[in-house]
Amino acid sequence: MSHVGARHRPIDWEARSAGRVSYSGDIRLEGLLEGAILRSPHPHARIRSIDTGKALRMPGVHAIVTSADLPPGARYFHEGEKDRAPLADGIVRFVGQEVAAVAAETRSQAYAALRLIDVDYELLSPSLDVQAALQPGIDSLHARATGEANVSRRVLRQWGDAAKGRGDSRVSVSGSYHFPRQAHVCMEAMISVARWDEAEQRLHFWTTTQAPYYVVREVTQVLGLAAGQVVCHEVGVGGGFGAKSKICDVEVIAGLLAQTAGRPVRVRLSREEEFETTKTRHAFDTAMRLHADPSGYLKAIDASVTVENGAYNHSGASVMSAGLKGLGMMYRPEGVELSGQLIDTSMQPGGSFRGYGTTQTSFALECLMDELAEKLGVDPFELRIRNANQAGETTLVGARLGSARLVECLNAARQAIGWDAERAQRRPGRGVGVAAGVHVSGSFTEPGANRSDAAIDIFPDSRIRVRFGGADAGTGQKTIMAQIAAQELGVAYEAVDVLTMDSERTPFDMGSWSSRGTHFAGHAVRKCALETASRLKALAALKLGDGPLRLEGGEVRSDSGSLALGELARLSNESIDGVLSVETSYIDPVMELPDKDTGRSNISASYNFATHAAVVEVDRKTGQIRIIDYVAAHDIGTSINPTLIEGQTIGGVVMGLGVALGEAMIHEQGKMVNGAYLNYAMPRSADMPRIRPIMIEGGDPNGPYGAKAIGECSINPPAAVIANAVHDAIGVRIHDLPITPDKILKALAEKEGRARRHRIWARPSRWWIALVRWAYPHGLLKVLHGRGAPPQTCTDPAPLKAVATPESLPEALAALNSSAVLMGGGTDVQLRRRQRLIEPETLVALRGVAGLKEIKTASDGWMEVGAATSLAALASAMRQSIPMIAEAIDTIASPQIREMATLGGNLIQEKRCWFYRGGFNCFKRRGGLAPCYAIEGDHRFHHNVIDGHRCQAVTPSDLGTVLLALEARAVIVSPTGERIVPMADFYTGPGETVVKPDEILRAIRIPPSALSRQGAFTKLRLWEGDFAIVSAAITAQVDAGGRWQAPRIVLGAVASTPWRAFDTERRLAGQAVTAASLRRALDSELDAKGHPLARNAWKLDAAAGIAEAAVDAILARRQLVEG
Amino acid sequence: MGGTKPRQVTVNGAMREIAVAPGTPLLDVLRDTLGLTGTKEACGRGECGACTVLIDGRPVMSCISLIEDVRGPVTTIEAIAGDHADLREAFADCGAFQCGFCTSGQIVRAAALLREPWPANAADVEAFIHTAMSGNICRCTGYTGIVDAVMRTGAGRGKLGGGAP
Ligand code: FES
Ligand code: FES
After folding, report:
1. Fewer C-beta within 10 Å: chain B N or C terminus?
2. Cα–Cα distance between A286 and A305 in angstroms, integer?
3. How many separate domains does chain B show?
4. What pLDDT sits at residue A794?
5. Domain range for residue B57?
6. Cα(A711)–Cα(A695) distance, rounded to whole angstroms?
7. Cβ <8 Å between B132 and A895
């Protein structure tokens, strides 16, 4: 049986699919305390003093630590710069930096204690972006070797003869490309469990990491311990993607707390902390020029990159140089001339991220390759084929290509995507794009990185155990190690166990990063297994004689007999208790450390290439991109496990598509704004098409069994693929990721020379607002922000005294008091508690209240829906009778949330402005003169374009929009009676309603006319289930002649409350409506009434577009009925 | 803390007495009180699906379900795993997990989906599953494997080509 190349199931699939793998958070230790971290609210400040006295006296608190508890001068090693202390030492340089930490019996005790730590800060001037950091006269965050303020590093690379190449060229294309910060968003957030063993004097860790080696090394040096005093244990690791490829920011703190408290401590970041404070992908600005001759041969590449480092040097310098190296690997111009500058900002630090700089630079390169193809009139595939490096060549950066199947990848992708047919057909709004990529399989960046050891144990019962020092964060390393051991030792795959991460019992390995997993684990385990096999054969030969021996079926066999491996192990005089252990060390023979001066070397043992291609459709009305098909061809050498390779390919593609289409970390005043799954537009299942991987096989001479890496290369092409396909579809080139609908619509408007005129000068009611908006960037925001409290990271709700579960309405009304809050499904209430927007003592749960979940039709024909009806139940009840309600519900959140959330809760939910929700002390949180952060902050998607005033938020409820178009009414009860409020009067402000604190929304009444009206709801959003960027609910009585009577046109998420387009309704009444006639009327109304913010005017175009789509849906439905 | 009257909740078929602080999320009860650590927390905000359990057979987010408001029997991955061997095998064969942190939630959600009606037209099934699984974020797999695993299990249970399970 051949195990190498087989589609074996993941080694621990039974445990993993049953929830039985222990991750760090599942480790139960006697006396485990919960740790919490106090973080800087300021981007740059000096710490004058920290007073922990009050906090230490809080119940349940066992330890509080600050930098004073660390050895003097304790710094993370990282790239050797030693610029960051695990707890801020005198200065904080980004919002969220660790200042102190608490260990307490419970999480809420720990958080409560944090609030009582007094830190006296002296504010220093921050540099919140690269531009600010480079302003003349700015304070430097660090003293760097460059001697220039905030310039951490500069590099200049010249490989080959770029000057000659430029001279030989006839054509050039150039452009500047921005790649944003991306968050790893491992599903398991950072966590570390530490236990100090006083008797042993050792610090034990169960910690989520890709590289136990670095955890041990760094904790040892930072805490001033001796070698051998820090121990890592094996745990499940819930994703890495580079986030955990060095030490993270929690291990030292957990260890220090455990030492101080004398009890084990768990430090677990909340999702908000994970987003807002951990290291990110570095943002790159890449300016590039390609020079070519007329026949499409690249002659030279010039590039300069500016990399935002953030507050500390983690891997910024090496990410930057890896990004540049990527430009010297794929193609073969005569020379490249590359420069880079790494800029310190007082922002979340960057760190290593899958793709490691090559993702960023290849976005620029591959977009420009498309531009070059267009300029030359050469097919984009053909252009790449002409310039592709080949096996046997040494590339400009010094990479010696043992194998290189870029051309094969190009051909395979071209065929699979149907390139020629797509290009020939040219359907409007549809485009096809291609991009290539390259990556290393491990890199020799520091001593030791070319080496990996492995050990194999043969147990008396013939079971095999591989011991390996790295960690498998989900990439399948453990599985392939088991396959290789099974292969070489001739045993069943199931007979092999793999132990990783355990720093006491596993030999040396630096961990899984730089796509080194397959290469090093593969070689190391193979070498060890071969050595083990030959020892076993030697032992067997003593018994079985000299004839040929083979390992199979868990035995060593000869023609004359056989011996089980376990038996042979026992025979060995090296075995201990019958266990034979063999350990070997693999040192890669071909990798070279980079040359100090030129940066050139054969840094990796093998190089893997890829070509991706996609078909997209771009909706010119809404700016939405839909991926129709996506293929990813990879030059993988050979596959040790095809299922795992495909998984790494697809996973990398989707992570790359995330940043192509939605992912970007947005900051304001130094704090992340969209740090939640809800606000960080990463791909959900429905947003993604089937990704079709294509494996181009054919071994590499240097890979184990010919295998090359796959884990990172797959993330490199997607952004350029999409940008190129979008360009092909609509003729606009987006240089700035992610390619969100705002950029598409803005580019289209520019291209078509469209602009809206809002004539604010003629609308006195908007003058004051326009003036204030103007003043914000001219100093007003700075003043207002400086006066107020800094933003906070919200992660823990205040404790409750009770949750009341009344069974009748009177009971529920009686339970309401000033410290009680009503709860429907609780989906928003729990969030608002966590965000510290409410701190009730009591929650009053409405789901058990009799009659509140009924849907019935009254004698007057009005339908009455109880407010506690779940969205799921409401959708199934309405799917036939009023389908637009069901269709709207289908777009809300997720199936799970729709089971929980209620109609009433959906209507009453608060505004979702991400500043307000995200801990910014804005006007709505603080009142008074607190600023509205949305005026200057990122308001492209979720803010007001019509009637914004002090607050720019909108009402988030989709059902509010729909029910207004259906002319529904709200039934509100109070202790004194019942009142009925038309939906038109229900909202008083953004997510604010007429329901008073002592009232309960009991039901919604829907008029009989709703059944006979034609209607549709359409919505533009960033991901499946997100809140609307804009939505439209349109209903009308359509008469036999197709004319619309009494149309109701309601737009959602454009104004503080659901907004009726009254003028448009009037103009369309009695007409046979088409999308075009609606558009004309609506456009002129939006021009007359709109008052967008600086960067969200595009939403007016999107609103008109989404309303057109609603009209189309109504017409289509009619056709269906009539047809 | 504490000091609350115990309440009874049925978890995986067994009646359990629970005495926890008011407003404790079901997820914490499962993981900390009952030691059922198969259910994972990835956000605590109801936004990712990692903590999905069934209440009364319906998938919900346990991280934002308060124990007082749990009105039906709770089923977690520990019980689902035993009843859905075909689904777990399909997950393993199709590359539907890598790190496995989202997997409990995916499998619990998928188990519920396998009991819901599927589109009559087999051609619509793939898109249907893509959408129905959208409440469960996976950062590793890119979803194709998950959709394949659910489809394969559905096919094995005769759910393709319409009809009830
Ligand atoms: S942990 Fe419950 S939804 Fe994310
Ligand atoms: S398998 Fe890692 S998040 Fe889904």
Report:
1. C
2. 4
3. 2
4. 74
5. 5-79
6. 13
7. yes
Give me the phi and psi of A998, to 5 degrees please: -100, 15
pLDDT number for residue A1122: 65
- Number of compact structural domains in chain A: 5
- Same domain assignment for residues A531 and A610: no
Q: How far is B162 from chain A (nearest CA, A)?
A: 18
Q: Looking at the structure, do residues A207 and A259 belong to the same domain, yes or no?
A: yes
Q: Which residues line ligand 2 (CB under 6 A)?
A: A 187, 239, 474; B 97-103, 138-141
Q: How far is the CA of B60 from the centre of ligand 1 (A)?
A: 9
* Whether B67 and B114 share a structural domain: no
Given A563, A587, A611, the domain boundary residue is A587
Distance, first Cα to last Cα, chain B: 46
Q: What is the pLDDT of residues B47-99, one digit of tens each?
A: 999 999 999 999 999 999 999 999 999 999 999 999 999 999 999 999 999 99
- Is residue A711 less than 8 Å (CB to CB) from chain B? no
Q: How many A from CA of B97 to the centre of ligand 2?
A: 6
Choose from A9, A14, A16, A17 for mutation: most chain B CBs within 10 A.
A17
B163 lies in some domain: no
Asked whether residue A770 is domain-assigned, the answer is no
Please write the tens of the pLDDT for every residue from A658-708. 999 999 999 999 999 999 999 999 999 999 999 999 999 999 999 999 999
CA separation for the pair A87, A418 (Å, rounded): 55
| Cβ-contact A655, A242 below 8 angstroms | no
**B positions 106-125 inside 8 Å of A (CB):** 107, 109
Check if the beta carbon of residue A301 is closer than 8 Å to that of residue A327. Answer: yes
* Block residue for tokens 């397959």: A518
Cα-to-chain-centroid distance, residue B67: 17
Distance from residue A475's CA to the centre of ligand 2 (Å): 10
Q: Do A691 and B68 touch (CB under 8 A)?
A: no
Give the closest of A23, A803, A894 to B49, CB-based: A894
- Two tokens, residue A876: 């199934």
Instruction: Count H helices and E strands in chain A, helices first.
Output: 34, 42
Same domain as A1121, residue A1090:
yes
Which residues 7-26 in chain B show a CB within 8 A of chain A?
21-23, 25
Please check whether residue B64 lies inside any domain of the structure. Answer: yes
Domain residues for the domain of A1049 are 1013-1123
- Look up the ipTM and state it: 0.97
**Got the DSSP string for A934-959?**
TTTS--TTTS-SSS--S-------HH
Q: Is A162 a member of any domain?
A: no
State which of B40, B45, B77, B104 you would mutate to test the pocket of ligand 1, scoring each by most atoms of that ligand within 8 A of its C-beta: B45
Instruction: Give the number of residues written for chain A.
Output: 1123
Q: Say if residue A1004 is in the same domain as residue A1056.
A: no
Domain membership of residue B161 (yes or no) is no
| Domain boundary, last residue among B79, B105, B122 | B79
Write out pLDDT tens, residues A250-280. Answer: 999 999 999 999 999 999 999 999 999 999 9
Residue B75 touches chain A, beta carbons under 8 Å = no
My answer on whether A868 and A992 are in the same domain is yes
Could you tell me the CATH number of the domain that includes residue B71?
A: 3.10.20.30
Same domain assignment for residues A579 and A695: no
Q: For A691, which of B38, B140, B142 is closest by C-beta distance?
A: B142
Residue window 510-539, chain A: list those with CB within 8 Å of chain B. none
Query: From CA A738, how far away is CA A683, in angstroms rounded?
Result: 12
Residue A199 lies in a domain: yes
Residue B165 domain-assigned? Answer: no
